[in-house]
Specification:
The protein has 779 residues and is α/β, with parallel strands linked by helices. The protein contains 24 helices and 33 strands. The strands form 8 sheets. The protein has a 7-stranded mixed β-sheet, sandwiched between helices. A 5-stranded antiparallel β-sheet has the order 5-6-2-1-7. β3 and β4 form a beta hairpin. α11 (344-351) crosses α12 and α14 packs antiparallel against α15 (426-440).
């Protein structure tokens, strides 16, 4: 799809590319960038755009071969294709009527200046271009810059061409000539941009810089690209990449840019054959034969499960069956699934605990309305495939829900047995049935419904989007799912570790939808490459569902949170779950985990981050939470697993500041003890700091898991879409309808963060209303 149409060498190790990317090509604006990935195991790296060729549906860009990934790209030939290109990303450059503008480019930063200079000149500005390099052989794109600017001047460090010195020396020449400069743009190496900013600030000349910070996803989800602007953390991929250079903390930026210097050096050495790769810390192919012992069901004497007429008292005497699991000291050293699943015997015993009450309430507790008593009866009868059919009548993702949904607070809490003891393990039985069907279900069976002729776009391939897709394809509508990342699954893939939810389970569920006729597209950034308006007007969709999921992560807002070694949980888990940093350098994305790790927060994401840290070699991992365990939002099972694996819990504790080393790595965290006060708006008691209780906690890695807002890309580009004061899409709870006709929403895009099954429940509600709208046209 992303075929290389042209490649030429501009200077030693620096190449001009033209590559197919229709969506990005037509939406790109000056100053924006893309994320490119040459192959499945490579890093996702940000590259500024030099322009586009609408005739060829292509992008123009320049790449310098520096490390492993850029060398891999520069070794590709015309006719080869990139694995992934996503964009356009970031906000366009501020093109205004400045007057005289000096555009300064260092190295391949000149490429990013080209479209900016062209647009500035179109607006009537006098544009003076300045190209800087070490010597004449490294001067790039001079001819194109001369076409874009009113005039171009050159600087070389050695004086081999143009002014001897730096771009700032040329800027001084311009000022000395009496030219009144109104604004400057500087794009290139960070020291160059810092020098231009420092020079222009006392002169009161505006300075716009483009920051190419560390990135993973590039859509504002992970927070890895944060930079310090005017004392506040900003995300370069969302708020930028352009910033006021006078407000940027360049020293902090340069320090963060060195975060993975050692890892990048090793990866490049392995690529060149100069070093052997480090062995992965934590294997995926652990031998589980020894721990997969015979798990026999626990059945009281005198109870015969073949007797289909067991009395309620007899059923209630059967204890809840224990889920087979890897032992803690074994599982913390591998990424294999912790819970091994019920055997047939265990499933039979557990299903027979259901007393078949006359007025079952368990269905009411299920957000997607699974007919639980009916699928239980099929398990008791040994007809597991029929049980799977019952579940799939209302749940298109049973293998996923059976693993990660909090049944203990939903369907299971409604179970009559929960009144006097432990409920039936509904979630574990759901997983058993789904896994059994996956292994023994035979050929895929699907009878397509009569087509309605209606066409629906679903934005996001997470649990809400997949649920809507499954429900609508079953009703005969044409369904198209757009995913921004290069892999389908949304949070199910990037957010949940494989020891809780294996990727092949997610891919199996998605493949089932694909076989039913659902169309899937990756690398499709709705809100940037295509707007919602364009989905209706240019692509002919009759309705749109927004299931865009998580957005900007919440920060601690304490001093030192931009030190190296400080992650948001989204970035940390995305590096490992999506980009496989645990298999570095086979996969090129790195991650660093110290011997001591502090995870801030106590939700499921915090548990995931803590348990992944152990598997990545941490010797001591602590959950730091400002409330008590009673207020912790994580599932009890996840907390128990974390404790069993050795995670420490420091409750009623909050971070005050982070303390770093001289070279910018976090080394300690100052904490303060808390006590609970009055309840807040969530109903939980508010934590109150205890004066004088501060203490220092040594830590080499800090991971913040404090929740997140919604993804802002679609709301910011969709007319008529009402948002609340937090930027969350306003949608009717009973229908998923938004304020924009034909647009529905569900999942984290309307909650700001929830569970998989709640997102699916909202998707199911929206699908029903969406189907009615498509049939009647009534809004």
């Amino acid at each position: 799809m992303f075929e290389i149409l042209e490649k030429k060498e501009l200077a030693p190790n620096t190449f001009w590319f033209e590559a197919k990317a229709p969506l990005v090509s037509h939406a790109r604006k000056p100053g924006q960038f893309m994320i490119i990935c040459p192959h499945e195991k490579a890093e996702r790296i940000p590259i500024s755009l030099a322009g586009s060729n609408h005739k060829n549906d292509s992008l123009l860009f320049v790449i310098q071969a520096i490390g492993k990934t850029t060398n891999e790209i520069c070794s590709m030939k015309v006719g080869d294709s990139f694995f992934s290109i996503i964009g356009p990303l970031g906000e366009p450059s501020p093109i205004e009527d400045y007057g005289v503008v000096v555009c300064m480019g260092g190295g391949y930063g000149v490429a990013a200046l080209l479209p900016i200079a062209e647009e500035l000149r179109k607006r009537g500005n006098r544009v003076i271009g300045v190209i800087g390099a070490r010597d004449k052989s490294l001067i790039l794109l001079e001819e194109l810059m001369r076409e874009a600017c009113d005039e171009v001047r050159i600087s070389t460090n050695d004086g081999s061409y143009g002014t001897k010195g730096f771009v700032t020396d040329v800027l001084q020449e311009i000022l000395d000539e009496g030219i009144e400069v109104n604004h400057t743009f500087a794009i290139g190496p960070v020291p160059m941009m810092k020098a231009v900013s420092n020079m222009t600030k006392p002169l009161h000349i505006g300075c716009t810089v483009s920051l190419n910070a560390l990135m993973v996803d590039g859509t504002g989800m992970c927070g890895g690209c944060r930079v310090n602007v005017n004392g506040a953390s900003k995300f370069a991929c969302y708020h930028g990449p352009d910033f006021d250079g006078h407000q940027v903390d360049f020293d902090e930026l340069m320090n963060r840019q060195k975060w993975y210097a050692n890892e990048e050096k090793h990866a490049f050495a392995v690529y060149k054959g100069e070093e052997e790769p480090h062995s992965p810390l934590c294997p995926y192919n652990a031998d589980l034969d020894e721990i997969d012992a015979k798990w026999n069901p626990n059945i009281p004497d005198g109870i015969n499960l073949t007797n289909k007429k067991l009395k309620p008292k007899e059923r209630m005497s059967i204890p809840r069956q224990k889920m087979p699991e890897q032992e803690p000291d074994v599982r913390r050293k591998n990424f294999e699934e912790v819970a091994l699943g019920f055997t047939c015997a265990l499933a039979d015993a557990e299903a027979n605990r259901c007393i078949e009450c006359g007025k079952p309430k368990c269905i009411d507790g299920c957000p997607v309305g699974v007919d639980i008593p009916r699928f239980m009866k099929h398990i008791k009868a040994g007809d597991y495939l029929e049980a799977a059919k019952v579940i799939k009548e209302t749940n298109v993702l049973p293998a996923i829900c059976g693993r990660v949904c909090p049944q203990e607070t939903q369907c299971e809490i409604k179970c009559m047995l929960a009144n006097k003891g432990e409920s039936v393990a509904i979630g574990r039985l759901e997983r058993f049935v789904a896994d059994y069907e996956r292994q023994y279900g035979g050929e895929f069976e699907w009878t397509p419904p009569t087509p309605t002729g209606k066409k629906v776009a679903i934005v996001g391939s997470g649990p809400a989007g997949l649920t809507v897709a499954g429900d609508l394809i079953a009703r005969g509508h044409e369904v198209h799912v757009y995913e921004a990342l290069h892999r389908l699954g949304g949070v199910l893939i990037y957010g949940i570790p494989e020891f809780r939810l294996p990727n092949d389970v997610v891919e199996m569920e998605i493949d089932g939808l694909r076989k039913k006729g659902v169309h899937f597209y990756t690398n499709a950034l709705i809100g940037k490459a295509i707007t919602v308006d364009e989905l209706f007007e240019k692509h002919g969709f009759d309705a749109v569902f927004l299931g865009t999921g998580a957005g900007l992560p919440r920060m601690m807002n304490v001093p030192g949170e931009n030190y190296k070694g400080v992650y948001t949980a989204n970035e940390f888990l995305t590096r490992i779950n999506l980009m496989h940093a645990d298999r570095f350098p086979e996969y090129s994305t790195p991650v660093t985990v110290g011997k001591t790790v502090a995870v801030i927060g106590c939700g499921n994401t915090a548990m995931d981050a803590a348990r992944v840290s152990l598997r990545m070699g941490a010797e001591k991992v602590a959950i730091v939470y400002r409330r008590t365990m009673a207020e912790a939002p994580a599932r009890a099972e996840e907390i128990q697993h974390a404790k069993e694996e050795g995670v420490e819990f420091r409750l009623l504790t909050a971070p005050v500041r982070l303390i770093g080393t001289e070279d910018g790595w976090v080394k300690e965290m100052e904490c303060i003890k808390m006590e609970l006060g009055e309840p807040d708006s969530s109903g939980r008691r508010s934590p109150v700091p205890m004066k004088g209780s501060e203490y220092i906690m040594p830590t080499e890695t800090v991971i913040t898991a404090l929740g997140f807002g919604v993804n802002p890309l679609v709301p910011n580009t969709t007319k008529g879409l009402e948002l609340d004061k937090w930027g969350v899409i306003v949608a009717d709870k009973a229908t998923g309808k938004t304020s924009r006709k034909g647009v529905f929403a569900g999942g984290d895009s309307i909650t700001g963060g929830s569970t998989v099954i709640m997102a699916m429940g909202q998707g199911r509600v929206a699908a029903q209303a969406l189907d009615e709208y498509l049939k009647t046209g009534v809004w």
